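Q: I'm a student working through a structural biology exercise. My instructor gave each of us a protein and asked us to get a predicted structure, then write a short paragraph describing it. Mine is SIMPL domain-containing protein. I'm not confident about reading structure output yet, so if you can add a plain explanation after the tokens, that would really help. Here is the sequence I was given:
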Amino acid sequence: MTMYPYSYNEVRNKERRLHVNGLGRLSVQPDIATIHIGVISENEKIQIAEKENTQATESFLSALKQAGINEKQIQTTHFNVHPIYHQQDDSSQISGYQVTNEVRVTVSQLNQIGTIIALAMEHGANQINSLEFGLTEKQKWYYKALNEALVDAISKAQSIANVLNVTVDLTPIKITEDSRQIQPFTQKIALQSIASPPIEPGEIIVEAIITAVFRYS
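A: Happy to help. First, here is the predicted structure for SIMPL domain-containing protein. I'll explain a few features afterward.
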């Protein structure tokens, strides 16, 4: 005798469920940028390398502050001192020292980025390591993408129900967030001159993916 896991009534009354993925994807203009500006100094003597690095760093930071950048917008992200080696015969010997100091400058007036970079370079900076654009209200834009993902899931559920000729309850009985992603836009800056470089902020991609479960009959 064959045994089944459900009786006829259990199978007949078993709730039918439809699992659907929903995608919400937005392209948003950034409203904030972070610039990583640095100074690299090298000298045979560590004291001179450190002194030159400090002077150059203080010089460009002072210029930025005079241009309207306040201290809250500036943060040191990296400081390092390490020896420089050269190969002589079968051994390596110290020939000097390299001092690296990097700060992160956060700005909200994106049309001033090129001027800030040129000003920093003119007053001692010799490294622009990266320029990253972002959003100040990430959560707000993610919620908008999440809403679009739900609308997408509902639309898919209705479309599938139409093809199968069934009736679907478009109020989900379960919603699961599968993925959330906010992709910052990063731009490399070539240090070819102290002229203000052209800057294109691009767009930030905000994405939400959900799984929604619907009843149908």
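A: Here are two points you could use in your paragraph. Residues 1-13 have pLDDT under 50 and may be disordered. Residues 86 and 92 are 6 Å apart (CA to CA). It's a good idea to check both against the output above yourself.
Q: Great, thank you!
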